Amino acid sequence: MNNVQDIRRILKQKLQNQEFVTDKSGVQTIEILAAQFLADESFIFGTPNDEWHNRELTWYISQSLNVNDIPPPIPKIWQKIADEDGLINSNYGWCVFSQENGWQFNSVFNTLSRNPDTRQAIMIYNRPSMHMDWNRNGREDFMCIQNTHHFIRDNHLITIVNQRSLDLIFGYKGDYFWINYVHNKLYEQLVYNYPNLQLGKIIWQAGSAHIYSRHFSLVENYVL
Known about the structure:
Elements (H helix, E strand, L loop, with lengths): L3 H13 L3 E3 L5 E11 L11 H13 L13 H6 L10 H6 L6 H11 L7 E3 L5 H4 L11 E9 L2 E12 L2 H21 L7 E15 L3 H5 L4
Parallel strand pairs: 5-6
Antiparallel strand pairs: 1-2, 2-6, 3-4, 4-5
């Protein structure tokens, strides 16, 4: 299986070959379709901003669907996709912890607690109504993570992320920070039931993993 360094190598080759795909906004991208890789690093290009990631995590844990509740300063990207009242769809804490969305985290914990060999431990983020919800009241937020699938195999907790769209610069860093938090939280609860359980891998799967032209220089200048 590819790892993060392999993804960097593939992207650099695509850039050198000028294998561009035009985004809906008319911007050029380089893209890997059906990308699958071991998430063995917390970033692909650029440097993680832990201060921001911790503020975003605080907001996720609050389960608020309003970007005005993000500890300030509110990032422009969240302001851009919110509707006129500040509402969005993609508070991932709401997706997995809220009663409104079916107690996804608790359901996965209970499923794995009953049967460590299960294939049914799925946290479902997205929903069929997203086709209408994504631009409700002027928002522009079609949720990126579809689901996360959790396994106990060979006494390791493994998380598989299934994502429709993955911006490999800002998106991956923020999503990795969140997924790693949930991965560890689930492990910390399961280890009471399975004392010998070990923290396993995070595997990423994305329908479209891409980089926008404004970040091509990060790819071009990266030394493999």
